[in-house]
Design brief:
Elements: E1 4-5, H1 16-33, E2 39-43, E3 57-63, H2 73-78, E4 82-85, E5 92-96, E6 103-104, E7 106-112, H3 116-130, H4 132-148, H5 153-176
Parallel strand pairs: 3-7
Antiparallel strand pairs: 1-6, 2-3, 4-5, 5-7
Helix pairs in contact: 3-4, 3-5, 4-5
């Protein structure tokens, strides 16, 4: 299953369907954004095969400047990809889902390619896919918070931040020491 009511938290074991959905969406985005998208990757917990995840596919689109995406807002909307604005920092967010039921199936983050946000997304994904002990540490944290905050995604997300920051620091060190990417689309 893919999709979750906005603002809620429910975790599911990894599903092959998530990878397939990510790949289909990446192919659509490549066609629509060919002039500006440098690379598009499946990120987030649905891209980490050993952990539970919210059934929402996270993708990152790397561009030279996030504002380059703005002329494509209407075209993307015609394909069910809705502009949500700047979600955090130097990112632009698009979402997909069943808007009548207030569910989201995909979050699409547009960031500067090969800059901090881009690298953080890929380093985190690759590090956890390569270090099962760290993936399980993250998984345990997520499960605990999901039980506490099933109807409060903001608090769930905030509760993970300290561990995410720590794991990102480890992931950056691992990458700088030659960590291998094993999950590139």
């Amino acid at each position: 299953m893919t999709g979750l009511k906005r603002g809620t938290v429910a975790l599911e074991p990894h599903q092959k369907e998530w990878e397939q959905s990510a790949e289909r969406t990446i192919n659509i985005l490549r066609q629509l954004l060919e002039p500006v998208a440098i690379d598009i990757q499946h990120i987030g917990s649905t891209a980490i095969s050993s952990i539970y995840a919210k059934p929402i596919i996270d993708l990152v689109v790397g561009v030279h400047e996030p504002e380059q995406i703005l002329p494509y807002v209407e075209l993307l909307k015609q394909h069910g990809i809705v502009y949500r604005g700047n979600d955090v920092g130097e990112q632009i967010l698009f979402v997909m889902g069943d808007f009548e039921k207030d569910t989201r199936t995909h979050h699409i983050h547009v960031v500067r390619w090969n800059k901090t946000e881009w690298n953080n997304y890929l380093n985190f994904r690759d590090y956890l896919n390569s270090h099962s002990d760290r993936a399980m540490q993250y998984d345990t944290c997520k499960k605990k918070l999901a039980l506490q905050y099933s109807d409060d995604r903001v608090r769930y997300t905030a509760g993970k931040q300290e561990l995410i920051d720590h794991l990102l620091k480890e992931a950056r060190a691992w990458r700088s020491e030659g960590g291998i990417t094993n999950n590139v689309n």
